Amino acid sequence: xxxxxxxxxxxxxxxxxxxxxxxxxxxxxxxxxxxxxxxxxxxxxxxxxxxxxxxxxxxxxxxxxxxxxxxxxxxxxxxxxxxxxxxxxxxxxxxxxxxxxxxxxxxxxxxxxxxxxxxxxxxxxxxxxxxxxxxxxxxxxxxxxxxxxxxxxxxxxxxxxxxxxxxxxxxxxxxxxxxxxxxxxxxxxxxxxxxxxxxxxxxxxxxxxxxxxxxxxxxxxxxxxxxxxxxxxxxxxxxxxxxxxxxxxxxxxxxxxxxxxxxxxxxxxxxxxxxxxxxxxxxxx
Length: 285
Ligand SMILES: [Fe+2]
Description:
Layout: E1 5-9, E2 16-17, E3 29-36, E4 43-49, E5 53-55, E6 58-60, E7 63-70, E8 73-75, E9 78-80, E10 84-88, E11 93-94, E12 97-99, E13 104-110, E14 116-117, E15 131-134, E16 141-142, E17 152-159, E18 166-172, E19 177-183, E20 188-195, E21 197-199, E22 202-204, E23 208-212, E24 218-223, E25 229-235, E26 242-244, H1 260-263
Antiparallel strand pairs: 1-23, 2-3, 3-4, 4-13, 5-12, 6-11, 6-14, 7-10, 7-13, 8-9, 8-12, 10-15, 16-17, 17-18, 18-25, 19-24, 19-26, 20-23, 20-25, 21-22, 21-24
C-alpha cells in the first residue's frame, strides 16, 4: 500500500539520516521519503551523499534503482555522472558502489525493504540481471504507443517482461498538451527532473513528485516553453490509457443546518487505506 501522493515538492519534506537504509555503506548520507509502503518496505527516496560513500558488492532485498541527478557514482569499474542509472533486481548481485561527496540521487525500492547483504556465497548471485545505463548517451525515442498525443519522447530504463513493470525517462516537448483526462490500471509515479508543466493536480517543476495509484484520473496537461518537461516515471504494469472527456462531478445532498455556499463540505479524494481495510466502496463520498 502506497498513499496517493499528488502533488508534493521535495523541498517541503524533512531530511532523515540515510545510513540505516544503506547497510554495509561507509560514509554519510541523508534521505527524503517521497513515498513509502509500510507493509513491504517499498520506497521512493531522494538521497544526498554528505560525504564520499562506498559499499562492497552484494545483493538487495528489494528491486532497487538508482538515478544520478547530480554528481558521480562508480559501479564496479564504471564511473557515471548525471544521468547514470542502475537496476538491481531483488537477490541479484551487483558490483561495489561508490558515490562522491555531494552526489544527489533518486533511489527506488520495490517488493522489499532496504536490506543489503554481501554476496560471496549466495546462490542467487546472477550478475547478468544487473542493468547499468548512461542515460546521457541514450537517444530520445518518440513514444509510439496509441493514446497520448505526439510530442512525448522516451528513454527506457528497465522493463520486466513478465509483469510489465517499467521505469523510463519521459520528455514532453515544449508546448505539448493533452486536455483529456486519463486513467489506467497501473500505478504511476514521477519525479520532475527538469522543465515544467501544468496539469489538473497543479504545477510540475523540478523537484516535484507524485505517486498516483491505479485508476485515478489525471490530465489537462500543458508543457511549457522553452524546455518542455522531463520526468523519471515508474509504473507497475503495462500502461493503457482510458480517456474521459466532458467530465463533470456531481455531488448532491440536502444541507440541513449549514449554508452550502460558505459551509459546504469538500469532496474527498481517495483515502489512504491499508491492505487489511480493503477497497473503499465509495460510501460517504
Ligand atoms: Fe498517466
